[in-house]
Design brief:
Elements lengths: L1 H26 L28 H6 L7 H9 L4 H4 L7 H46 L1 E7 L4 E3 L5 E10 L3 E6 L2 E2 L9 E6 L2 E6 L8 E9 L2 E11 L7 E7 L11 E3 L4 E4 L4 E7 L11 E4 L2 E2 L6 E5 L3 E6 L8 E9 L2 E12 L13 E6 L6 E6 L11 E8 L6 E2 L9 E4 L7 E10 L2 E2 L9 E2 L9 E5 L5 E5 H4 L10 E8 L4 E6 L10 E8 L6 E2 L10 E4 L8 E9 L2 E2 L22 E9 L2 E7 L7 E10 L6 E2 L9 E4 L7 E10 L2 E2 L9 E2 L11 E8 L4 E6 L11 E8 L6 E2 L9 E4 L7 E9 L14 E2 L12 E6 L5 E7 L11 E8 L7 E2 L9 E5 L6 E10 L2 E5 L6 E2 L10 E4 L5 E6 L9 E5 L10 E6 L2 E6 L8 E7 L6 E6 L1 H15 L11 E4 L5 E6 L8 E6 L2 E3 L5 E6 L4 E6 L8 E9 ...
Parallel strand pairs: 2-9, 12-19, 92-99, 92-100
Antiparallel strand pairs: 1-3, 3-7, 4-5, 4-8, 6-7, 8-9, 9-10, 11-13, 13-17, 14-15, 14-18, 16-17, 18-19, 20-21, 21-24, 22-23, 22-25, 25-26, 25-27, 28-29, 30-31, 31-34, 32-33, 32-35, 35-36, 37-38, 38-41, 39-40, 39-42, 42-43, 42-44, 45-46, 46-49, 47-48, 47-50, 50-51, 52-53, 53-56, 54-55, 54-57, ...
Amino acid sequence: MATKIVTYRCQEEQEQQLSHSMALSSHIKKKKFKSSDEEASLSEFYPIIPGDLMSVKEIMTDPKFPRHRTWEVLKETMANEELRQRDQWTLFGNEAEKVEIEVIRNQHVVRKRVDRMALRREAERKCSAHLKYLEDLSMKVPDFPVPLRPHTVWEGMAVKLSCTVQGCPVPHVTWYKDDVPLRLSSQPWNYKLLQKFGLNTLEIRRCSAADAGEYKVVAKSSLGEATTFATLVVNSYQGAEAGLKYTQTVVPVVEPEALFDSTFPPSFVKEGDTLVLCCGFSSPLLLFQQNVAWFRDGEPLRPSSRVEVRTALRSTTLTLKGVHKEHEGLYSVRLQTWDGTKEHAAFVYVKDGPASVVGAAGSPLQVECSDVNRDYVFLSWKPPSADGAAQVQGYFIERCEAGSLQWTRCNEAVQRVCYYPVMGLQENTMYQFRVCAVNQAGVGRPSKPTQPILTSDPMEPSRTMVVKVDRGREIVITKDQLESQIRVPFPPTGVCVCELSDSYAVISWTEPDPRGKEPLTYFVERSIAGKNSWHLASMDMTVLSTRFAVFDLQKGKAYCFRVRSINKYGISDPSEPSQPVTLGEPLGVPAAPHCIQAVPDTDTSALLLWKEPKSTEGILGYYLYCSEVGSSEWRTINNKPVTGTRFTVHGLKTNKEYVFRVKSVGRAGNSRYSEESQPVRVKAAKVVPSPPSGISLLHCSGSEMVIGWRAPANQGGEAVQGYYLDQRDKSQSVWREVNSKPVKERVYTVSALLEGRYYQFRAFAANLIGLSKPSAPSEAFLCERWTMPEPGCPYDLELREVRRESLVVMWAEPLYQGQSQVIGYVVEISQGEESEDWTAVTQELVTDKHLRISGLQAGQTYRIRVSAVNSAGVGRPSLPTEPVTAQTRPGTKDMEIGVDNDGFIFLSFEAPEAASEGQFKWKKNYREAIDAGRAHLKTTQNKSVLTFTTASEEDLGLYTAEMIDEPDISSSYNFTAEDLERLTELSWQIRNPLIGLRSEGWQVEVMEQGAVRLWLQTEPLSSAADLRMILNDREISSTPARKISFDRPSGLVEILFDQLSKEDEGSYTAQLKDGRAKNQFTLVLVDEKFKQTLAKSQAKRRDWKRRSGPHFEEFLSWTVTEDCEMIMKCKVTNMSKDTKLRWFKDGMEITQAVFEPSGVSTFTVPQVTKKEAGVYRAVVSDSRGEDESVLELVDTEFDSLLQRLSKQCALSASPLGIQCTAAGFKLYCSLKYYLSYMKTSWYFKEKRIDQEERTAPGSSMQKVWIEIFNPTENDKGKYTLEMFDGQDTHKRHLDLSGQAFADALLEYQRLKQVAIAEKNRARVTKGLPDVVAIMEGKTLCLTCFADGDPEPEMFWLKNEREITSAGQFHVANEKKCSTITISSVTMEDSGNYSIFVRNSYGSQTVHVTVSVYKHGEKPRADAIEI
């Protein structure tokens, strides 16, 4: 019984463990079920079962179970413990194995079913969407391709009424008879309705009179309805009727679809800016069109924090914030239409952003992360296109933890190639990386940061398995649960070098298997191949991942590597060494491309082609560069490498020549520049012309027709060489060639026509490139003879000189004149492209065949037509011109008139720079050719000049010029008689020129040493210019004493006299001639002018001799400073080391003067008095000579000094202040110091204050004042101090009124009371000594006198206590006198005594120290002995 209970309890315990394990596994769900198209973990195919579900022994012995090295290790580890733990193993492993196999089988079955269902649903969805799309496309309103036909029959005959109907959706058909729905139930034997494949038939077997009437069929659908009807006549000859009627319901489906209206051109944006691209639509987007998609290089753009896509009904906009170089590329927008997808694309160029350092390189691009591990990431990038001021030397790599914005440099040394292994990262951390290029100028702009990456163990998913069990539960099993017995780790395996460069090697390995439960780190060791000397390569770094980069390797040596595993239990044995490796050769830059060829494309772009180098290994793309011919500046075209060998370059200037070159891009940097391409001019590529237009009938004779047409709108870059004309009969569809050879004129006579027939015509234009497309067929012209009296239509209407407010229209006279000659023309204008509201431009007839139309509105569109007028009236109008917009073409210049350098009158016209090079056509009065005998034409690039041989009245008129290839570029000028008169005079001046004068005639200049220079300057002259100098009617030449020079390039003529003398007096004339130009200039140097020049020359010569030794550069002078000091100053130059300077005043030497090494000497007088007046003299001398400077500071000069001092003193005066005294008020003004030379006056209320009993003015060296005694209320008011310095008056004011006066008066009264109290206060007049010494036993007598009113009281104190007359003390008070007598003093009488006097005004205390000493002792040294 006991045995059964134990067995039962064991079974119960096992069941409890099993249920607990299943419940626990159902809560741990790391993996969910995945279909076959999703990524599956290896653990799903190699299950790991914990021991509480399946016996380990059964796992080891079952041959059908999948094998893994983990099982072998476990088998070896647990072999020794099998007997001891045998009782603990569960014994139901077979059941677990069956469950596992069934689970795997069910997973595959479910996965297949899910895949089939998903594929079926996707196919059904796509099929439904396609059918819906086809249905939408095929929707059509009801229609009757074959309507009902009327019938007439005899009674008793059978008849069938039939029609066909079509529409989508299929319309519902209803028959009516006389507007009443036809019901077959009343006569089913007589009526039969059939409807099959859109054919509807009503059969009436036997017709009767009652069946006659109107039969109608109505087809209805959601899109509208259609009706057809017919009449049935029974036995009647009356005419039958038939008709067709439609009604249509407007539904959204038939609205016009939207197409691209405005698009974005190739755009240029700077790095870091915002890019905005916009497209407009021709109409609102339909429902199926609203999914507008944007792409970059074919990849769709999704909305994000940087990308914003906005689509409205009439436009779509793409906004890209913070543009980087990676965003450069071909941007396209796609729009769904009924016919498919419409697409517009344009290239967006991203320019380099501003560099933080001038001359630094641009930013690298496309930084990518790969091989992400726990502490290791491998980076690669592409080099920038712009090297900056110097070639790129390498790169710095920076990292940043996501969200911190703090960038840390990863490499200390510059990385020369565009890839780098980054180590030392933290596990499970989000990082971003960026790269900066480095050159000699510094570190450039950083690249775009990478997307955040998470450092983690890439092998983590392979160590986890999820087992699916019944009821949707999962069992999550990890290798750690099976490897918990592993202590010291096993060594890694598969050690090898996975990345090798010329500076480092990246080692990779496989983690040990089994790895154990504890976290692993690694040691990396290295050894020179062939030597078993291993050293730690990882040093103090903790290696977490299975990657490690070794940098400090020596080139030329082979190395082997091995790795050890480490956990908390210890270090494993070393792994097997790797194969020996040596550092690779430095990665070389790729070769440059070749065969660079540029082809014109459009007015602003060119197609660039090149051939890749022979070896394309390592080439990532190409950078392109362009330069305008004549400029040394190269511009980077693309900042993102182009992978192909052709590229369309945009943003070029029209009609400018460019050269191009290309670089290859590699990881080691960019190649050298390729050779330059041949120069190419930017202009539109030459194509065939556009078709002619406006075919019109100009005349018809009955068998001939004269046909005219309008020139092509675009000649295709080449002039039209001729035209071809085709004709056909209106009743025929085949065109017949009229002329086999091209005709140059746009008028052609077609003969051999049949009168009364209608003919159509079409025209072709041909240039050197080829034949254009045919024009639109003309209307059908009736071939019959014209006999109308009015003239035919003018033709060949052309527009010229289109400006903002005017244009010129020209035409040819009609070929058919009518009954009389044409007498004029009516020119009409219509505003708008299709408006038929025509208005006459002029009230009078236009007699010329051209007209300038003014008063147009800028930006408006106009059409013009012309009608001829004869005596019979106004003829038929011409075909209107093509719509033209009133606006001035950018860069348009008007024709100019002028005179050239040879004196010929010319007209010039310059085309805009954007215009292509071509020939110019000049005409007079719009039609007449230019007479080659009267003018000749010269054209250079885009400028044409018409020069008149001899302009006269015959040449007057209106001249026009236009480009043959682009007639829109045109201008005109009306050469009038006024222009002829003005320009003829200018021409004479140019042909008979005068040499112009730049200086104001002859100039006389006395040089520093006394030499005299006579000179004049003309305009620059040629080297062939000639000079003749005339003095007093005789020609003179250059001599040593009188040198004549002539500088032709500057036009300078000069005569230099070393020493002017009396013989040089006279009249000087310079006669100049330079080719046709000539002139003469005269100087009269006589009488007073000559004497003044001679005296000045002699004085300067003497002064120059004085200056040969030390001399005064600045003579004695005085100045007054702000501190009212007088400073005398002089400056000496040309000094030597023994030069001395002495000062004298009135013959007495002054020794206080200061002489500085710079030559400046000063003498300062702090306060000037009359004794400073006198004659001052400074003498400088040395062995070379002496010079002196004298300053007479007397009389007027001294008065000037005093005046300047007085002015400075007055300027230094402070505002007036008030000082209260016991006597009254004292008003004062402070100065630097006061001079008696300066006159002062005091004013009260604008009235001068004279000296009175109550006032007393005064002054000191620094102050001026006035005292007001015993002030009263009458003294309240404004006081003014006037100071006169001899020239100017300076004033200072004080407003003594109001509160200021009240306060001052109160203070005065207080001070007065204080003065009275002080005067009458009790005080000691004759004081006591400070210390008195007396021998013991003697009598001390101290007497003190006091004064005061009233008479003061007097008290004697000892140690602050009053002494009264008693004992040895006797106090005697008399009038203002008090005496204290101390008889037989003792040592106790020593102490501090004082006398205290007081009355009603105050008191005073005087102290005395009494020192009693014994007989034989010495008294105190500081005491008075009594």
